[in-house]
Design a protein that fits this description.
The chain is an alpha+beta fold and about 625 residues long. About 55% of the residues lie in helices and about 10% in strands. α14 crosses α16 and α24 (about 505-520) crosses α29.
Length: about 625
Amino acid sequence: MANRKTATEFTSLVAEDYEEKEQTVATFGERGNQTVVRKSNELIQNAMYSLTLSQQKLMLHIFAMIKPSDTELPRYEMSIYEFLKLCGVDPHNGSMYNQVKKNIEDIANAKVQWIRIEGTQKYTILRWLESATIDQRTGKIVLTLSPLLKPHLIQLKELYTTMDVTYIMLMKSQYSIRIYELCKSYQSLYLQNKAKGKPLIWDIDQLRKQVDCSATNWAHIRRIVLDKAKSEINGHTDIVFDYEVYKKAKSKVVAISVKIEPVAQSEASRNLTDISSAISKRKKRRTTAALEETERFDQDPSVMSLGYVSSPETTIPYSFGKKPAELKKEIEVRAEMEKLTRELADAELEAVHILINTMANMAGKNTGKAPLIDGGNQQFFEAMNEIIYECKSLHKWFLGIAGRYARKVIPIAKTKASPVPYLWKSILEDMDNYRLYTAGTGMAGASSLPEEDPVYEADCVEAEHEEEAGSVLIPQDAGTKKSMLQALRRFIDEEELAEQLTSGQKEAYDEILQLAVYFCRRNVKSKDEGMMDGKANMQFLNSLNKCILKYGSLTPLFEALATAYDYDTYWKKVNRDEKVRNPKLLFQSEIENSLLMPFGVIENQKAKRTVLAGGGFQTNWMSAFEEEA
């Protein structure tokens, strides 16, 4: 009975426990103006996760509400009004309230995965939030962070990074925020290495995981991740970031050396003041009309609130995949519709409008294996932005494809049970092969375009050639494998090839010929819809017929292919390449592309011979592309 507490003592203990719990609650009113974040270097450098731009900013704001004196992770209690302010959304815009639940759900469902530490087999998966409660009656939100984050955010003594979240508030790229965090965490190591005359090296594959970038193309990583980060970090924060290529494996960039220089304290303070002033002015300038415009940008409003500017030569962020109406406007800007209206016939212009509608409506859908990045189909946005970057707009591409879509592709699509997927697939393929359609357009307008389809047209062969028996390949040749093989051999001088080819090249020729038979008869639903005439795949027959009409035979093409894929050299090279997992599939894919671009293959081989003969490059590459079209 000695351990029994009196009522007064029990009440006192409850009160003490209540006070202790109250101390672990972080409210926006108390801590909302805190801007300094402290994170362990391990959390910054070794964790990979996927959060949108606004979600990254929100989590950094929440981390900033932790005080150095906290011994436990606090619970975060705030109103929906305050949550919207943390998200960077104008809380007076009622249409934004429906985003609260989705933002919280997305953050709660986002996995944080530690990259495996070198030399071990251990990695950890956790989630940012342990729990989240939304009380619609009171408008209160309570967020509880995962306890596994505690050692990375609370009572940090060593190997941690301190940064002011104000510096990232005007950043428009999710990658820029991650690069800035990485720079801050590596800055001390960089300065140590610099003093020793050693570079700080970042591995590109590791960097891709750290910033959650799925692209493997160096040009894309450089332009979208690194260069964008440079432009948003330098002159706007407390550091200066730069990089240069450090190591290549063959032609692939595998590592970069980075510079992370601190700026003077006076400049850092001035940048903080400028950002705070810009945010304040932006809030004051916001008018009712601007709010109505912003309402159309759901899910990630920070994209437009940060001063996004449309122009023909600027690429379009992935996040526009979630906003079909606005994406349509952006594509029209890049297409330079006023020019197209003057240059295209009515039917061609109508085809362009159909294409733009299809692109805008499909860009946010997860089709096939292409993942969604910030709400946009990765394959689509990377292909479209590649054209914009290289051609300074989408104008030439639309100019080049308008005629073919008006004459052929759209009429075929209308016969399909599912016309939109058919159009979408055609658009993606034509974006990947954009050089076929942009090389010959120039400033001459639609009149300079080839009249026939470089890849798909089934009627590219002139009538007089069709009437002349045996002058070209015809659909009936593909009736059987044997008849197709015989038809191809009619246009190949095998005696000439036997004299000119080595034994390894002859082996390659035999295999390539069998693949040509296969492709001329291939009927794969996902790739060949609309291309079949009986058992003939007209995509390949038409391409080979153009070669026949130009050179009088297929001998130059098969000679060039046999030389390029000489069995004595090609397979040794491919089998030594660790990055090639399926050499046979790679070989088949390369032959497929070569059969569809015979002029390029032949001209390429001619150029190589000229170089070997000591004559230098004499080939007119532009004319080769124009002939291909």
